[in-house]
Each structure stands twice: as C-alpha cells, then as structure tokens.
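Input record, target 12 of the design panel.
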C-alpha cells in the first residue's frame, strides 16, 4: 500500500443485524462493488467501493464479549450509521492535533504496525464516533459474501451530511485535526473535502443527538432510478436507519 500524503475520508460504517439489506441497497441498487472485509473479535465487517467518494462499511455482531459495543449500539438506536473512518499518514501526529484541540482519543491501539487506530467519542466529536487509522499493507482479502448481488450501474458517494450543534467547533475538528479543506461556509453549514472525493457537509442544528449523521448523497450518471427501484431504495434505507439521496 502506497503511503498516504494526506488524510482521506475512507468509509462510512453502518451497523446492522441484516447484512442483505445493505448489500441490496448499496450494491444491487447503487452499484457498490466488493472491496474487502473480514472477521474481527465480536463482529464481521465488509466494505463496498463506489465510482468515487468514500466506501460504505457494514458491521454486524457475531457474539461474545467483544460484540458488546455493537450490541449496545443496535439495542439503543437500531441499525444506522455507526462511525466515520479516516485513514491518516501519521496517526501519532493526528492524535497530537486532537489533544491540542482539547479532544482526548479513546481506544488507542498503536501496537500493530499494520493497523494502528484510535477513536474520538461522539460526545467530543459532535455526535458521531470517529475512527482514525494508519494502515500499512493490504487489508484482508476474503471472497465476496454469498448474499452480495451483482452491482447495478455505478454511482459515487458524493456527500455525507453531519448535523451538529456547534458548527464552529465541528469545523475546527474536521479542518485542523482531520485535515479537511473548507470549500464553502456560511452561518448554517460548511462543506469540507478530502482527496479521493470525500465530502462532508456540516449542518448547524439546534436539536441533534448522538449518531447525528444525516443523508448520504449519491450521484448516478446513468440517470434517475426507475420508480420501483426508488421505492425499494426508500424501504431498504429506512430498514437500515440510513438516509439516502440519489440524483
């Protein structure tokens, strides 16, 4: 794996007990193709790649004490966006910037040279878990899951909405700690971008709770979805607790 020069928004992770809903939505309707995935203690994860923008990762618990974090999430909130992942060129530098901004990382694990990671708790990261990771070498390469359908026409994940109570503080996090570039800002919202097409729109909101990610926006060059597929998309996105817009 080529060493990163800048932080990238790598994926949006969605927790669910029913993987086939995610495969049908993000693969069968939106054209995501298998990237990689595998078993980790307590959960299984798999990622789909799109024509542009970050990937989608699906997480499902597999039992045991290590599944507790995901079981708690699903029990309290149901399926839905679980975290944002950023791949960073130097995780210790990123954690230094976080601490300088008054944010104390949790779950810091720098012992594995191939995968170093840490997290920012949603209480300090404006309502969503943020995972930062420094990866060396390729990820696991199991075959695609049996329930993954043939991909539809390709689309790109062009925008991730994040509703925040403190727009200024959120911009500070994403710009100064996570190396995003502010490309638009007004009193109500700010757009930040990362290499590879990752874009987050921070939207000021007076009523936000933990897990405050908003809609995921996809661009589909092949044109609008036919009405039966659009109806199916709406049903699947509701079952996954994840807002999806397609244009």
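The sequence produced for target 12 reads:
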């Amino acid at each position: 794996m080529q060493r990163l020069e800048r932080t990238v928004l790598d994926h949006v992770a969605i927790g669910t007990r029913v993987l086939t809903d995610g495969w049908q939505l993000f693969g069968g309707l939106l054209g995501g193709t298998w990237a990689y995935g595998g078993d980790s203690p307590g959960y299984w994860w798999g990622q789909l790649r799109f024509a542009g923008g970050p990937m989608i990762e699906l997480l499902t618990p597999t039992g045991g004490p290590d599944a507790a974090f995901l079981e708690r999430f699903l029990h309290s909130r149901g399926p839905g966006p679980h975290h944002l992942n950023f791949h960073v060129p130097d995780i210790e530098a990123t954690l230094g910037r976080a601490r300088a901004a008054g944010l104390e990382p949790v779950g810091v694990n720098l012992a594995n040279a191939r995968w170093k990671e840490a997290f920012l708790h949603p209480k300090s990261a404006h309502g969503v878990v943020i995972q930062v990771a420094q990866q060396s070498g390729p990820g696991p390469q199991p075959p695609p899951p049996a329930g993954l359908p043939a991909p539809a026409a390709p689309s790109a994940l062009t925008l991730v909405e994040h509703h925040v109570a403190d727009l200024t503080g959120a911009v500070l996090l994403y710009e100064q700690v996570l190396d995003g570039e502010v490309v638009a800002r007004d009193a109500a919202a700010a757009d930040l971008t990362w290499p590879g097409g990752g874009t987050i729109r921070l939207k000021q909101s007076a009523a936000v709770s933990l897990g405050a990610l908003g809609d995921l926006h996809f661009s589909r060059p092949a044109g609008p979805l036919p009405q039966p597929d659009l109806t199916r998309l709406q049903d699947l996105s509701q079952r996954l607790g994840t807002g999806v817009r397609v244009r």
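DSSP finds five helices and 14 strands in the chain.
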